[in-house]
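Repro case for the chain-ordering regression, as requested:
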Amino acid sequence: MASYELSSTLARFLDKHLCFPLLEFLQDKGVYNEEDIMRAKIALLQNTNMVDFAMDIHKELYQTDEVPATMMERRTEVVNRLRSLQKAVDPIIGCLSNSNVIRNFRHDRAFNLQFLKEEFDIGPEQIEALYQFAKFQFDCGNYSMASELLQAYKPLCTTSERNMSVQWGKLAADTLTQNYEAATEALLRLRESLDNQSFATPLMQLQQRTWLMHWSLHVFWNTENGKNALIDLFLQPAYMSAITINAQHLLRYLAAAVVVNRKRRNVLRELIKVIQQESYEYSDPITQFLECLFVHYDFDGAQQKLIECESVIEHDYFLTAIKSEFLESARLFIFETYCRIHQCINIDMLSERLNMDKEAAEKWIANLILSARLNAKIDSKAGTVVMGMQSSSMQESLAEKAKQLSVRTFTLANAVVGAPATKA
Amino acid sequence: MASRFWTAGSDSDEEEVDASEEENSSSEEESSSSSSSSSSGSDSSSDSDSDSDSDSDSDSDDSDAPKKGAARFLAGSDSDSDSDEDRRVVLKSAKDKRFSELTDTCDEIRNKMKINDWSAIQGLFDELNKRLERARKVSEAVGTPRVYVRMCVELEDFLNDTLANKDLKKKMSSTNAKALNTMRQRLKKHNTSDEFAEAVTKFRENPQEDEEEEEEEEESSSSSSESDTDGEREETEKRPAGAAKKKDKLLTMDSAEITYEMVAKKLREIVTSRGRKGTDKQEQVEMLQFLANVAKGVPQKLEVLLQLVGSLFDLSPGISNYMKVGLWKRCMLVMLEIMDTLQANEAIVLDDSAEPSEERTAEPVAGEDGKVRVWGNLVAFVERLDDEMFKSLQVIDPHTHEYMARLRDEPVFLALSQKVHDYLARIGDVRNQPKVALRLIEHFYYKTDAVYDAMRKLTMLQQEEAAASAAAHPEGAVAAASAAAETAAAANTSNEPGEEQTADDKVALPVPLDFSMDESSTAAMKRLVGIVFTHGDERAKARAMLCTIYHKALHGDFHSARDMLLMSHLQDNVMLMDISTQILYNRSMAQLGLAAFRLGLISEAHSCLQELYGSGHIKELLAQGMAMGKFQDKTPEQELLEKRRQMPFHMHISMELLESSCLISAMLLEVPAMASSPLSVKKRVISKSFHRILDTYNRQTFTGPPETVRDHIMAATRALMRGDWSGAYGAVSALTVWQLVPQRESVLDMLKKQLKEEALRTYLFSYSAQYRSLSLDQLCTMFEMDEKAVYSIVSKMMIAEDLHGSWDQPTRTIVMHSIEATKVQSLAGQFADKATLMVELNERAYAFRTGGLRDDDDMGGGGGGRRGGRRGQDGQWEDDGGHGGRGRGRGPRLGAARMGLGQGGQDFGGHRRGGGGGGRGDRGGFRASGFSSNMTSGLPDRFQRRGPYRQQANPNMQALGSISRPGGGVGGGPGGGSYNRPLGGDRRDRGL
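-- result from build under test --
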């Protein structure tokens, strides 16, 4: 089971803070030894400023009230730093909290800086301190504050390098405050700036795209239209090649999103191709399911994989919410494909395939027929479903071709003759 | 013979001269009459010997050479001792300059004489005359300077020699010959004129006096230029003569008496004379060998040994011939000795940037860093040795024992390279280290595990033997080895070439005991390739990469080999590389194809091999033999070059195996395709060469039982077209090449499976129209496949609408519902297809004209989609063909092979692992660390820093990334537009 558990892989591409929900989830599920997870948590927190939290976990883990000296030291250090930063940013925060000031900001960053300098005597040091403070707050787990601070800092940052950092920080902070709307927006912006980045080396771009995709998992799986956005993002050629090069395991999420999202059947072919191509690098029950179904047409195998999928999804932080949805869609997938190549199916067999009893299966099929998603008839005497035939005759296809030809010729002729006419 | 002289020479010089003269005269009697007078008159002199010697040089045949050399030594010894001891420095500064000018010009003329450059001599002679005029003015002396007269005499003699030598004259270029004639006339006039005639005759009568005076003059010229002019002057004669004399002295001396200075001087002498005409290379080697034994101090010994290696290389003729095996072995021995010395004395550093053998009289002291620097370039020697071995393997007939014996020398070479490599690593020479590593890689990459193990065993066996012999001779293995070398050396001096041969072969070449090969070739490759990737230059990296690809493919790791190939962008760059790298690329490609074939990845195998095989020049592409084309007219130079590129036999990839793999792949792809669309307009040809062969085969009126690979596969094709898989399998499995495949069983099984599947598909394509329904069970028994497989294949065909039918689940049958088209209908269909094609062309033409503006506005999406869709189906082939074709047009034919490793209809650009090679490296780096330990270190603290991630990347892979060209600009950009781009553009478009 644990072999399909992706947390460790994902963690490499996530921010420390973004990993934390994953660890919590794992702790709940009890896949790993609880102590190990606690230790991992402490290790995770060690480099953040959430010292108290780390101490709590430590106490819980070792069942003591004593806390190692290093943690205490770290604590004082953090507190000191907090104080000094606080002092440094007080003027600028005071100034920025005045809405009149914000209103006077323009798109021109240099102007903003100038403006602050002249009006409030706020120099680059304070602005830098603001950024540091935001980072510090983020590290303390004070995400909403960090988000606000970053928002305030944004019109003031001058280098594009720093701008990227701010965007990443904003995305993380919004994600962690579960403000997914803002996060989606931040994601979109970040993606834009990634694509427009001209100074980054290909290697850096690759790395950042990979990060973006991982971070976006948090957002996409928690928003309404997220699956669509996920499919859109992941199937972008640049991101797709990032997946094939750097993070094949993301195929799982892409596959799940495609399965769940009925409207996006059209991308299935592309997805299958990638899955097949990467199968030697990465495969898990979800991709195997698709492979069984659409490459080998092995329905029994697909059935088997679907059962495996269930437990995999259950233990996946991102997917666990869509479990039933996924299973339902997957079942429909199997059935649809099955119907496409059969003209007559035994309902008994079908119910077995679909993991339903006969009655339910019949009802299910009847519903499908009713909703006009299946061109078939139930032969209840023989206990079979008979598919409607829709093979086109030769004449029809010829007529179709001819029609198409005439349309195209017409456009072409129009283009040739019409061109001077429009000019004149 | 030579040794006799050594001892004799030391006793009395005078006697020796006589003896030598006697011997010499025997050869000189045949020489031209003009010089005989001078040789007879040279009782007490030596330098007039220049005449006689140049005679004997050209006249005496080769077998006389050693004899003559020895004689020459002794003759010369006399004068040299004179000049050494009797010299007084007389300064005559006024005339100095003029005279030195004169002597310089003379020297230059002598140089030109050596290379027979008469046109240059002519010019220089004019100059000489001018200078003479000036010299006369300055010195106001009467008569002519002796230097000048001597030059005239020498020139005359040389001219006569040259004229007498018909062969030489024939070989001369026309300008040179013309200059020769002019010189002849001019010299005749010149030397017989009143002014000089007297001087010349006088000189001829008494060259000795002349010599001495000249000696003085030269001494006086300037003390700093002394060594130069001295060396130059002595170039033809005196150097070896001097050497002989010194040697005499040295050889007889007690080794304790020999000082550092003496050895150093001697060494310098040899170094300066190296490469000159008339130096006896054999003698030099002897001398150096001796010097090595008496050298004072380790650094000096190293100097001598290094020089010895160089001199040994000099013994082998030209670049077109290979070094004799015995000589090679001697070189190896010396090299091993050097390495042992270096190993034992860590303070000594060999450095080719150090001052080469400057004037030193005492042992060099350690530098400030406690290191003694000695000039030398081990890497060059190793590379030369490798090249020589390669060359010898090219030439030796691979079916003889000689070839096997030669191959047995490989472990020693590997040991040496490894030692040099380790040494370079120790001194931190990262510039040269990759060079040696690459050499080693190129010895490893083509070895299968079996071969590698055999090599390893051989190494150990040889080491054991060496250890045993070392035990027998208490003085140790190295001493034994050098003793062996000495015997060989002694044998070498004898005249009979046959004897030399046997002696050479007897040289035992023990593998050093401290050498051990890596457990597996993979480990060895990994280690070495890492070094090349971190420090090597572009070419080395590319080669190492290709070797790794080859090696991985050889070991069946097709996927990672393919990924490496695609990531490194070698396909794009290989056209720009040197031919040998292109050959290596082709070899890797062939091996990759074979690997894919073994794994049953038929279409991949086909696309790898197709280009190579389809070109019809596969032998040339792989450098495994010369094409015997009728229509080729190669110049001899081209042929020679090509010959030099050939791979030795043991590195060959079996042609037959390649051919059968390629043709079988083509068959498996082509037969169902042909069956599916017998009448289709857009018939796409997967493999042209396959079609060609099939056509000729079909045209035959009578087909006998299959003999060649082609026959077998054509027979199989016929069977397969009928859906008769067992017949096809019978024909294919009868091929003998399968014995060459290590995993014979599995490959045959794979083939059987593939044949069954394709036979089923072909059968369904061809005969489905004849059925109304087909039972699954029947199909299973017909093709001996299990239900699931048949079901899967048939379903796939249904989905793809290749088969118009559907399953009837309760009865387990396929029900066909294809309506058979009437003749008119199918013709109409074809007509419609053609019309569509025409419209498409029109559209394209229009788009081309107008830049596609309006077209795109109106229906760009549709058109793009269509085009894109088509590419989706057969993009791979179009893509492939286009690029291959361009490749052929562009560069030399070698290296034309390209491949499209797409899967199914995958279009290339999309899945090539563009630009981010390094990204993979990152992944590798990350992967290495485990879960819990990695939690903190590996977490991207994106917020603050971004640098560290790149540092974490595996250095090898990062270097790998830097080989790769950044994958096409910055980012693919927001998609959409890419459809309308030409195919080539599309490939490059999707970087990251």
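Ordering looks correct now. Chain B has a mean pLDDT of 67.
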